[in-house]
Amino acid sequence: MNDIKWLLEQRIIHRGMINSQCIDHARDSFLACMNYHYPIEVDLLFLADGEIVVWRDGSLKNFGIGQDSRMLSSITLKDVEVLCSMQENSESQLKQMMTFKDFLDMIGGKLDLLIEIKELYKSPEIHEHVVSVLNNLGDYKGKYALHSANPMVLKEIRELNKDIPLGQISWSFNTVDVITEYKDL
Asked: What DSSP character marks residue 122?
């Protein structure tokens, strides 16, 4: 799993191929990447029931659900299904969302993946979420690397599996809102 050459050898498509027919992080955008055998970068978010979804933004308002200001992290997969059934547009973004398991089953190990684990900095579920991601990736036949803006996520991954290529998404550590513990990892 330590082979990281693939990360440098060709373009990695961020959030899938996007065009007038495909929105980012949606099934069609991933299928388009499969047609060209492009590695892709995807974001993972966690629902309140622990279900992992492949999506970039956690606000329901960004799905066009009226003034619903809830975050995906506060609802369950069942809630998502109910919201989808209430939407008239069959092509709505919310209906395009995939669970991580469904995404991996669809890709079938045919693409290399750069996976961002989006996790709140003070989340008490970091360990459980990382374990869940690694369990889902257990049988994946393609190459993959994980990255996160949260150094605690990377620390958990490293403690659980030293062979997975990791990347830190970072920003300036000069601001006062970055706690010392993160700066020292």
From this structure: T
Going by their DSSP bridges, the two strands 40-46 and 13-14 should be labelled as: parallel
CB 137 within 8 A of CB 101: no
Return phi, psi of residue 161, to 5°: -155, 110
**Amino acid at the residue 162:** K
CA–CA dist 7, 23 (Å, integer): 24
Token reading at 11:
């373009």
Q: Is 184 exposed, middle or buried (0-12, 13-18, 19+ CB in 10 A)?
A: exposed
Lookup: tokens for 78: 């069942």
**CB–CB of 115/157 below 8 Å?**
no
Inter-axis angle of helices 27-36 and 100-107, nearest 10? 30
Amino acid at 39: P
Q: Are strands 52-54 and 113-117 parallel, antiparallel or unpaired?
A: unpaired
Give me the tens of pLDDT residue by residue for the chain, a chain 185 residues long: 567 888 888 888 776 556 666 566 677 778 877 887 888 899 999 999 999 998 877 677 666 566 677 788 888 888 888 877 776 655 556 667 789 999 999 999 988 999 999 877 677 889 999 999 999 999 899 999 999 988 899 999 999 999 999 998 876 556 555 555 555 55
